[in-house]
């Protein structure tokens, strides 16, 4: 369970950096500057999970090959794109990471309260980052521009329509 959280966090910080490098458009600087602190904090989260794995006697598999072989999601598919398109796609990414974290918390709570506590703290930060992303996608009435999109490409396309 922790190995998959490690993979999800490593994948997320690389995806966030990819967005940072490939975002364009009128919201460029706001998104560009919003993303870097998220990269740093998610990288720290991955380190904490890896150290927890080691503390429990496991081996933290942090190689790209292990991540790709074991992950349950596809690679981020948006290249150079408008900021709102990337944010729409990132909202879907964050939803997947948050859902995986919630499931891990439930599992950890049954066997190890220290691991559960670590993951709960990380969940709070991940949900805050998703809120930051969604703030760019929501109307004043609370309607999300990406609606019920379930894929990155669908969310990016809906976000691009609004931009």
From TrEMBL:
Residues 5-138 form the Ferritin/DPS domain. Pfam families: Ferritin (PF00210). Residues 143-163 are annotated as: Disordered. PROSITE patterns: DPS_1. Transmembrane segments: none annotated. Belongs to the Dps family. This is DNA starvation/stationary phase protection protein. It comes from Streptomyces hyderabadensis.
